[in-house]
Specification:
Blueprint (H helix, E strand, L loop, with lengths): L11 H7 L2 E7 L6 H10 L9 H6 L6 H11 L6 H17 L2 E8 L1 H5 L5 H18 L3 E9 L4 H11 L8 E5 L11 H9 L3 E6 L5 H9 L5 E4 L7 H9 L4 E3 L1 H6 L11 H6 L4 E3 L4 H4 L3 H12 L3 H13 L5 H16 L3
Parallel strand pairs: 1-2, 2-3, 3-4, 4-5, 5-6, 6-7, 7-8
Helix pairs in contact: 1-15, 5-7, 16-17
This protein binds hypoxanthine and zinc ion.
Hypoxanthine binds next to helix 4.
């Protein structure tokens, strides 16, 4: 596509909604809506410390990453059976399809569940079934990325990997999430080296609240292919040059950054700066049930607040496909779909 058509600002929201896109940073446990938390609690006879959906929603008033994680792990405690995991993932995939997400790479946190006595097979088989069904039911291509919880030990991460290996064909890679500051990437260098030998894709959260140094070590010691968040990289010009030169994508999550107070408001978010610096930056929802919006909410609110325009919408969607772990043939197919949407948008 030679040039992106000029789109008047009142029609930009429709274009953002309609364009096909990939979501590369979403935690499946972060898609559990309060209504589903209560339905699963009832199904599994779990008593929640909240009277109703409204009281739970009122607790979603976060001051930083840790204040969110405490509630997020509590919410996930209603999941027990394969059907629970499948229902959660199906609900997300239906919602994503409505936002014209055509490809999703979905994080899951097995240690949150195995610590409660739920087996690795239960978690992965339930999620994987939903991904397989989404291909037929919603036309969404979905795959799974297993995340290690960085506040836990290296030994526990190795145990988790061992438990997951019999199901190796049901996930495409590994990531690193949970409390960032005080848990630098190097804590998991040996685990990631093993995952690399196994041919798994590697990603890690870095530079969400943590310093640019954590992004450097995620790249150099963990050898990750993408950085999740990475917004603190803007504080280090040499790091921005490295990310641009090596085309290391950043999976940025604007509404998450707003709700966890990484930025005081969306107007001061640095997504425009990252794109301007030539980075393969993408927009994603992170934990949409907790942060007030799915993919299109993230796109619409960010564009409205920062003044990004149609060429940047196109770039963000192109970046989402380039940054994904699909074949080059599939990337080309997605790009053609995207160009078709822009060409026919009048
Ligand atoms: N950061 C770190 N860990 C997480 C997040 C996040 O934004 N969401 C779920 N686990
Ligand atoms: Zn995340």
């Amino acid at each position: 596509m030679r040039s992106i058509p000029n789109v008047p600002s009142d029609r930009l929201p429709e274009l953002l909604r309609r364009m096909p896109k990939a979501e590369l940073h979403v935690h499946i446990e972060g898609t559990l809506e309060p209504e589903l938390i209560f339905a699963l609690a009832r199904r599994n006879s779990v008593r929640l410390p909240y009277e109703d959906v409204e009281e739970l929603r009122r607790a979603y008033d976060f001051t930083n990453l840790q204040s969110f994680l405490d509630i997020y792990y509590a919410g996930a405690s209603v999941l027990f059976t394969e059907r629970d995991f499948e229902d959660m993932a199906r609900a997300y995939l239906e919602r994503a399809a409505a936002d014209n997400v055509v490809h999703a790479e979905i994080f899951f946190d097995p240690q949150t569940h195995t610590a409660r006595g739920v087996s690795m097979e239960t978690v992965i088989n339930g999620l994987h079934r939903a991904c397989c069904n989404a291909r037929d039911d919603q036309g969404v291509d979905a795959s799974l990325i297993l995340c290690f919880l960085r506040h836990l030990s290296e030994e526990q991460a190795f145990e988790t990997l061992e438990q997951a290996l019999p199901l190796r064909d049901k996930f495409i890679g590994v990531g690193l999430d949970s409390s960032e500051v005080g848990h630098p990437p190097e804590k998991f260098a040996r685990v990631f080296a093993r995952c690399r030998e196994l041919g798994l894709h590697l990603v890690a959260h870095a530079g969400e609240e943590g310093p640019p140094e954590y992004v450097w070590t995620a790249l150099d010691l963990l050898k990750v292919e993408r950085i999740d968040h990475g917004v603190q990289s803007a504080k280090d010009p040499a790091l921005l040059r490295r990310l641009a030169k090596d085309r290391i994508p950043l999976t940025v999550c604007p509404l998450s950054n707003l709700k966890l107070r990484v930025f005081p408001d969306l107007a001061t978010h640095n997504i425009g700066q990252l794109l301007h610096a030539g980075l393969v930056a993408t927009i994603n929802s992170d934990d949409p049930a907790y942060f007030g919006g799915y993919m299109n909410d993230n796109f619409l609110q960010t564009f409205a607040a920062t003044g990004l325009t149609a060429p940047q919408a196109f770039q963000l969607a192109v970046n989402s496909f380039e940054a994904s772990f699909v074949s080059s043939t599939t990337k080309r197919h997605y790009r053609e779909m995207l160009e078709g949407t822009f060409a026919s948008f009048v």
